């Protein structure tokens, strides 16, 4: 059976590691191509868009895909809806592998925002020096905040429009608590902005902010398609795939 993993996340890579080399299984991980040198998972890979839901449906037919796991980032809303439409059109089983969102702990000073734009509007009342961890793609929302200074952390260098007063820190997770504490102190940060990405790899900034008593603006997740079964961890997703790929050759006799 040919399995397509829609990837771009730690969990997608982990799933590919779990499935790679299983007898009777052909694996393709798909990446959007946003990151210049991505960490590639084991097994087959392809890079670039499919051309919307119809393009994805055509790809599933052409490559005789028997199951799809949407393991994209919780904020990659378009591809998840495209996957749901393409799977419905082709009758290919679809599973979403999505890490749960973060929940506030005692002492957290979270301010929820429905969008990056709303997060940007809330900032002037919260502080002057901002640690912005929402990625390089949405920086335009913060570009007009000329009175604020930003520490922007992203995997690749951002392109304009972006804030006029900013320092860029090129890095990718996982991040550890000690370094997050040190970053907040060294840059005299007064407020942190994050998407509700969930997962352990980028959570230490939340702990560091809590310890320092800093407010955190948390951007809520976009809606996900209804009717798609969801699991939270790669092991469960691997089990789902194995159940669909039928008995493994060695179990027959
Ligand atoms: P998006 O808004 O949902 O997708 C925009 C378009 O990019 C899709 O319509 C699709 O193009 C293409 N695309 C997205 N993911 C793809 C994949 N895995 N394989 C092939 N094409 C893909 O997604 P996004 O927010 O730009 O994120 C792009 C990728 O980065 C995702 O794979 C996601 O897992 C990863 N990522 C995103 C974030 C984030 O905060 N958004 C954070 C970390 C990682 P077509 O319509 O042409 O098929």
Task: Give a short overview.
The protein has 253 residues and is of the alpha/beta class.
What does this structure look like?
The structure is a single chain. The longest helix has 14 residues, at 77-90. A 6-stranded parallel sheet has the order 3-2-1-4-5-12, sandwiched between helices. A 6-stranded parallel sheet has the order 6-11-10-7-8-9. It folds into 2 domains: 2-100 and 223-244, Rossmann fold, CATH 3.40.50; 109-219, NAD(P)-binding Rossmann-like Domain (Rossmann fold, 3-Layer(aba) Sandwich), CATH 3.40.50. It is elongated, with a radius of gyration of 20 Å. The protein has helices at 10-19, 52-62, 77-90, 116-122, 177-186, 204-212, 234-244, 249-252; strands at 2-6, 26-31, 44-47, 65-70, 94-97, 109-113, 129-132, 149-154, 166-170, 191-195, 215-219, 230-231. It is 30% helix and 23% strand. It has 8 helices and 12 strands. The protein is α/β, with parallel strands linked by helices. The two termini are 20 Å apart. Bound molecules: NADP nicotinamide-adenine-dinucleotide phosphate (NAP).
